Amino acid sequence: MAISDEIERLAQLRDQGRLSDAEFQEAKAQLLSGASVDDHTSSANQIFGLSPKSWCMLMHFSQLLNCAPGAGMIAPVCMWVLSKDQSIEADRHGAVITNWVISSLIYSSVFGLLMFVVIGIPLMFALVIALVVFPIIGGVKASNGELWHYPMSIEFITVPGGDDEFTEEDSYF
């Protein structure tokens, strides 16, 4: 990317309020002195000090916190709410995870009732396995920059964006 294009991109970020005037001037000075602007703007892309890919991976893995009842359902939703305005990647992964959390609550309620008719026992067992395996798969895919839609997940919240691959340009900052 040419220097003029980089300066224009920085100006757009400043105009949108994503960079302060001081940050804009610092990044512009770095760019004009030959330093890479990516070093400066990459910190703006971070969510609580983590890259968007790492944050999304942790959102998926946080579902495994069910050793404390409910923590595996509350933690990823809270992480999503805190980060959805900072990164489109975090917003998309959070929506997918929230859809799975709501779906799994519905499935566990239905399977719990079906346990009285015995058929619910193997279904509940399969759901427990899915509650462990699906977040691991989602976390690994998130660390590779991919969005993975959980199987059997009902879409209550529309997942923003079209494709499932992310670039650095997809960050809000």
TrEMBL record:
User: Keywords of this protein's UniProt record, alphabetized?
Assistant: Membrane, Transmembrane, Transmembrane helix
Where exactly are the transmembrane stretches of this chain?
61-82, 94-117, 123-142
UniProt entry tagged with the keyword Plastid? no
| Name under which the protein is recorded | SHOCT domain-containing protein
Q: Which domain of life is it from?
A: Bacteria
- InterPro entries assigned: MamF_MmsF, SHOCT
Pfam families referenced in this protein's UniProt entry, alphabetically: MamF_MmsF, SHOCT
**Topology of this chain in the membrane:** Multi-pass membrane protein
Domain (SHOCT) ranges: 5-32
| Subcellular location, record wording | Membrane
